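Title: [Solved] TNF receptor-associated factor 4 3D structure

Original question kept below for reference.
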Amino acid sequence: MEPYFSPLSQIYPEPDSEKTIMGSVVYCIHHKDGCKWSDELRKLKAHLNVCKHDTAACSNGCGAQIPRVLMEDHLKYTCPERRTRCEFCGQDFTGHTLENHVGSCGYEPLYCENKCGLKVQRRHLSPHKSNDCAKRLVGCRYCSKEFVADTLPAHVTKCGRVPVTCPNHCESGLLAREDLDGHLKDHCPSLLVNCTFREAGCRFKGLRHSLDKHLDESTKSHLNLMCTVVNKQQHQISSLKSALQRLSLNQTGTLVWKISDYSSKMSEAKTKEGMELVSPPFYTSQYGYKLQASIFLNGNGAGEGTHVSVYIKILPGEYDALLRWPFAHSVSFTLFDQTSVPEKACNIVESFIPDPTWKNFQRPSKEPDSLGFGFPRFASHEVLKKRHFIKDNTLFLRVKVDPSKIVAV
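Solution (posted by the thread starter after getting help):
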């Protein structure tokens, strides 16, 4: 609204007063808004006509009163009647129609929502996501499972439902990749197969349908091959048994012999004359003498029917040719008292030093002495009952060879 000025002749009836007042220096009424103009009062009206801080009607006819300092921005950016052009499609719009157009322009480039990294015009975005986007979901044409488009080629190289042809060019046609192994193993008529006796030495190789005929016609030769294999395996088993036996032999010079099921073995010994139990063989050292203990639960010789008799015999060993003969190490037998208080145990111990003149201690032949050397009256049956030599129907006998006690010969 423009200022109203009353006739000066009515306000200042004296000419000198008017001249003095109108010559006074004043500031623009928009001084607080940033206008720095100041001059005589008479020049204020002319200044207000050009003051940028004074309002004026929009020149586009939108009806707004705009400070002159903001008029340029208003006409360019905010006036609803301004004319402007869309930066994407190039069409001209008025201000209020442009606001509706922004956000819907088909030519505006947008990033794909699938995060493939591409910018596509809004009008092409939907076809891009459906047909071209590297991150769209695509179904495998063979197994129907969905994959991200750029991973589909890698899947197809491994997909089990991809059709392939039989490498033997049989008449089965196309097969699913995952069924190929089963086809080759069990069904392909063009596959060359080995005879089922191949490991036995048969060298036949032919088409699957000819295998049955071959098996029928070659029964005798296959049997001969299997007999050869069995014989070879028996030799190998014997060799392995011998090696295992050597590895498992006791080589410490001490044997702790566990005799279980004592009552039944004693009953059998009483009814069967001369029943002898023999221990596992053992060596006095790694390259020493080979020995074996034996026991007669119902006695032998002077101890028959009243005592337990124990003996030691020398067996032919692998290193006899390198050993000193006759055998001269002392030997002790210990029958353990299995009392629950070890301090109160009363073991039965007998030992001897070999007589070098006895045949039993000479280098053994291939057939060792049937009896050996020992104690016919080692422990009486009455003593066995009085203490805990038999516990849980088991007794323990230790046979120990002491190389430090040798008779000088």
